[in-house]
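Incident log, structure service

09:12 report received: a user says their structure output differs between two submissions of the same chain.
09:20 pulled the input from the user's history:
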Amino acid sequence: MTGIAASTTDPNSVRKALTVKAPQRVAWRVFTENLGSWWPLHVYRIGKSAAVDAFIEPFAGGRWYERGEDGSDCQWGSVLTWEPPSRLVLSWDIDANWQYDPDLKTEIEIRFVSESSDVTRVELEHRKLDRYGARHEEMRRIFDSEGDWGRLLAMFAARAEGAAAT
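09:34 re-ran on a clean worker, output below:
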């Protein structure tokens, strides 16, 4: 993995990008089919029960959600665009109090750009942050540096590179 680049040109979005030493299809598969293997569910979860896995349903209109140890599902948002292995757009419907709000509809777009047969550039944009209203700046700061999509992408990249090496 090479360094995470950030762009701050739009005040209503956070952008992160990194290069992963994994083929595009492997990067896509790890991100979409193995979300629970790299997402730090012990820290980043919203359900009342301890989270044991996370999923992205593989179609537009599907959900992305965590599953608790008690078997309950806690939705994070939905799949808006499903274009394997290059593009995924998800709604992020978790409000500033870290509760599911189906009306929030911020968006996360992830692009998987093949740079060679074994290297993929992953670009993430979390946009429409103005929908957080008065807490917009706070949430942008969290996504950019505190909760940090960059750190989450680094965890994903480590898992994808491990999968590519096997």
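09:41 both user submissions now match this output. Likely a transient worker issue. Closing.
09:42 reviewer note: The helical segments are 24-33, 35-38, 136-146, 149-165. The beta strands are 5-7, 13-20, 51-56, 63-68, 73-83, 87-92, 106-116, 119-127.
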